């Protein structure tokens, strides 16, 4: 089983595959059957420090940082083209590693290609300003790369969420150390290899795989780290903030969510129902911006929930790589147990499981981490399953009777990432959008983003932003230069 078909991956440091410092390997499991299909050198704190050393040297010595931005444009575009040419291989790797459907994985890799193209165009547009000051002096600013930047990614969209911060850091001329999630390191390692071939100099993009505690904390605390981008849970985000604050290191934090989907009585209910399905069962619900709370006007609750239930029950659940499958397994047995625990607690507390709620135990799916698409209702807004991030294919339903109540419920969690709503009424759409405490609002669409749109959370969902034309600035230092051009006196 293990030995015959597994592929071995090393760390990626200084432009080449490297074994881990202590020589151990971690198996990488296929979530559709929990069998190992690859293994990865397990990184240690020593590997993390070596990657930092290499990155800092590359930052100082390679032409990447000091050089002409147009060279970085070319390399990043070439990387986009190489990735596009290998889209099928990368999508298959991502699908097998995360469990997501091949269609979803292809969408992910296309998003990464588009991100690289978009960000490449910013690498030669890092402009400064000229600032008017009193006589005989010139005052101007320049944008410089900060040095070595550290990027820590989660397992749900491994390559998308790595590259969306790595690309702008590279575009700005920094050297990067990336730590992917231990469960899903393969696409990041393959990407680093591709980047080297596309012309990213050795040491400018390094990937260290290993535990959050040993590798992640070592990277964030390293004295050479100049900026940190973290995507993951609120708890780990908090820890990273503390470590970074101790050294005054700027952070971008993209954390969890508990997205409300508000369906008003005048909405196009067929489209809304499809949007709800994609928003909670896409990627098996393992999405920070999942629409996991359905807030539906009481007057349409019954027929609308029936529509969503019917669509949920039609979804084909199976291995992500199998043709026709619409929802894959959860990433790990632990994640499945956690999600099932939420549903069991909801049942115990009097919630109604409208559909799903059970593991899939037929012979083909029992070895994997499969859960039926699940809808729960009849619980108050303060119940754990309604308020906390489940991170699985579980939708909670809450009725509302007025726009004010919808907004109050939508804002009633600690999170504030994406809220979506469905209505035909422009005034409702825009006024509710302004009242929502969150970083992103979607109107009459399921969760959707583009590399050119800022992606950001409010409240516990994070700080700073990724994507958009200004993202490169987060990985630069703004330096002011004041020149005396012959002014008669100093001071
Ligand atoms: P996680 O916080 O457990 O892990 C994320 C990454 O941090 C992993 O690489 C992990 O190894 C590393 N890590 C863990 N402990 C660490 C430590 N002490 N120091 C440094 N690094 C450490 O999250 P996860 O389970 O991989 O991902 C799921 C979470 O990510 C969910 O909460 C989800 O909402 C969130 N997420 C947010 C966004 C967003 O853009 N806002 C996107 C995707 C996922």
What does this structure look like?
It is a single chain. The protein is globular, with a radius of gyration of 24 Å. With 491 residues, the protein is of the alpha/beta class. The mean pLDDT is 96. It starts with a helix and ends in a 7-residue tail after the last strand. It has two domains: 8-255 and 461-478, Aldehyde Dehydrogenase, Chain A, domain 1; 260-443, Aldehyde Dehydrogenase, Chain A, domain 2, CATH 3.40.309.10. The chain has a seven-stranded mixed sheet with strand order 15-16-17-14-13-18-19, sandwiched between helices. Strands 10-9-8-11-12-21 form a six-stranded mixed sheet, sandwiched between helices. A three-stranded mixed sheet has the order 1-5-4, with helices on one face. The chain has 16 helices and 23 strands. The structure holds nicotinamide-adenine-dinucleotide (NAD). Nicotinamide-adenine-dinucleotide is lined by residues 152-156, 161, 179, 181-182, 212-213, 216-217, 220, 231-233, 236, 239-240, 254-257, 288, 389, 391, 417, 457, 461-462.
> Whole-number average pLDDT?
96
Helix proportion of residues, in percent? 25-40%
At the first level of CATH, the class of the largest domain is Alpha Beta
Count of discrete alpha- or pi-helical segments spanning 4 or more residues: 16
Which spans of ≥5 residues are poorly predicted at pLDDT below 50?
none
Largest sheet: number of strands, sense, barrel closure: 7 strands, mixed
* CATH homology superfamily of the largest domain: Aldehyde Dehydrogenase, Chain A, domain 1
Spatial arrangement of strands, main beta sheet: 15-16-17-14-13-18-19
Task: Name the hetero compounds present.
Answer: nicotinamide-adenine-dinucleotide
> What percent strand?
15-25%
- Structural class call reads alpha/beta
CATH architecture descriptor text of the largest domain: 3-Layer(aba) Sandwich
Alpha-carbon distance between the two ends: 76 Å
In the residues, how many domains can be counted?
2
